[in-house]
Amino acid sequence: MGVVIPLDKGRNQAASLAPLMALVADDMDGVNELIMQRVVSNVELIPELARHLIDSGGKRIRPMLTIAAAQMCGYEGKHHIKLASSVEFMHTATLLHDDVVDESDMRRGNKTARILWGNEASVLVGDFLLGQAFKMMVETGSLDCLAVLSDAAAVIAEGEVMQLAAAQHITTTEDAYLAVIKAKTAALFAAAAHVGGIISDQSSEKRSALDSYGRNLGLVFQLIDDALDYSGDADAMGKSVGDDFREGKITLPVVLTYRRGNDDERKFWKRALEDGDQRDGDLEHAISLMKQHNALEDTISRAHHYGAIACDALEIFPACPQKTALMEVVRFCVSRSF
Amino acid sequence: MGVVIPLDKGRNQAASLAPLMALVADDMDGVNELIMQRVVSNVELIPELARHLIDSGGKRIRPMLTIAAAQMCGYEGKHHIKLASSVEFMHTATLLHDDVVDESDMRRGNKTARILWGNEASVLVGDFLLGQAFKMMVETGSLDCLAVLSDAAAVIAEGEVMQLAAAQHITTTEDAYLAVIKAKTAALFAAAAHVGGIISDQSSEKRSALDSYGRNLGLVFQLIDDALDYSGDADAMGKSVGDDFREGKITLPVVLTYRRGNDDERKFWKRALEDGDQRDGDLEHAISLMKQHNALEDTISRAHHYGAIACDALEIFPACPQKTALMEVVRFCVSRSF
């Protein structure tokens, strides 16, 4: 029960995104405006489809990281707006392609673009947004930012293929799973924060600190997402409990429960997730096994660990409202689990 | 029969890719080596799938344009190798995504990657290659090249969506069709030649000339491809006659034949391509209508027009073996139709 203390700590301080959102509000207006400008195309389907996704209630946490990092570093130019918009476009492109790959029907409580406009359009509009993202990066004139973001683009895709190819086995280790989410989720969080430091011309020490903050926050974000899928409130999440289970995704709660289980339990996991043979009551049984083996608490406990690393990474920056807010984001992400 | 003269002219000189290939051979060895280095990944599926496509016998005409353009401009560095490899990766990524969008089973006489490894892997490995392409561009340090190639990436995707959304109507005009192929095919040819001039630090006049050469060559290439699909030799093409027809693609031979036909003929085209209701003998009927209305000859005639523009664009460059070879590429592309 070593997780009780950090959980309570998170709860006591009632962490929220509000302080961050207040600090970045003006700049995020610029980001939202730029995003709307850059989805314009003579081909009507493009803005229509892109806006569906862009308007559908994401928190835009990634571009906020870029903005807050640049502010914390005292940046006074305008390029952080373009970088933040690029990051959001990269994220949106990934979502479009992910939904095709996962054959998902719903995202954040709405039908996915592939259901509304087809897989073809989702693939191609994703490609378009990626192209637009790179155009905006180029406009900043920062080759260092381009290097970080193009590397992230390749790593994200690599992570997705990794998940496709290897990580669908129920015997996946925690380390192998971590490698997947480091690539597919944490790499973009890392790049988002990192480029805020690059564009502000920070020392390599501070750039690395921002990269590390973002990367570990990304891990927190993904792990909590994994736990919520078996325990969350459907309305608050905009997705239903059990989506990952139904799609046969091997996430950390599953990895832990499988390893801690007996032979019968392992057979169950193999049948339901690896063989895809799911029956009535399987989800409930899965959740009860997770409870029995403390898998959700321990997934959250792992998230706390990465959250602590994220906060320590930021410590070298002088105190300022942005630093405080960025630290609170970590606590907010962990506290999403309640 | 106004096309007889240019066709014969093409034939007399027995145009081939050989002079170009000889000039760029050493540099293309570098390109091929770099390509193999950059598909390496810890995720085995990535090099496996990418190599399938890379090895499957494409002529690599796009990277050769970059190399030849740089050579013609007297470039002495090594960055043209990276740019040429980026162009080929962008092209490969597009093919992977195209096959998913078109649900194609065969490409160049081989099973498509999506048939061998699934749509999911094709989408994701395409994304990976695009990320690797941008990483290589960044390594050249040329923001101008990055601007041209990222713009091309967005325009290509836009062209594909355009084709998906609007151009599937049998009533499409020649102009609308031209807009599609300008975007989806010619933009990358233009960028491939253009960046050869940028990296060689040429005047904007010469850069524009290379862009224009590539763009018009791209149109030639696509139009001849369209004609070959109804008249070509399956072995030489690596695809079967009638693929476009079976996939319901509205290409220029169809646009011309439809417009020149009577009401009954138009009903046939609408049924077979727009409604997708294809019956035995339809392909043969389509080809006989095309012959009757001279649609294939006139498609080739249009290609000659763009080919002439491509060659005139190059005229401002001083005489050199690369200039001669690049002009011969145009005649080679036109003469593919025999």
Description:
2 copies of one chain form a homodimer. Chain A is mainly alpha-helical. Chain A is 75% helix and 1% strand. The first copy, chain A, has a single domain (4-335), classed as Farnesyl Diphosphate Synthase. The first copy, chain A, has a two-stranded antiparallel ribbon with strand order 1-2. Chain A has 17 helices and 2 strands. The longest helix of chain A has 28 residues, at 204-231. The A-B interface holds A 41-46, 97, 100-101, 119-121, 123-125, 127-128, 130-132, 134-135, 137-139, 141, 143, 146-147, 150-158, 160-162, 164-166 and B 41-46, 97, 100-101, 119-121, 123-125, 127-128, 130-132, 134-135, 137-139, 141, 143, 146-147, 150-158, 160-162, 164-166.
Mean pLDDT of chain A: 91
By oligomeric state, this entry counts as: homodimer
Largest sheet of chain A: 2 strands, antiparallel
The CATH homologous superfamily of chain A corresponds to Farnesyl Diphosphate Synthase
> Main interface pair?
A-B, 44 and 44 residues
Summed up, the helix count of chain A is 17
Q: Trace the largest sheet of chain A across and list its strands.
A: 1-2
CATH topology of chain A: Farnesyl Diphosphate Synthase
Number of domains of chain A: 1
Helix content of chain A: over 70%
Overall 3D form of chain A:
globular
Rg of chain A, alpha carbons: 20 Å
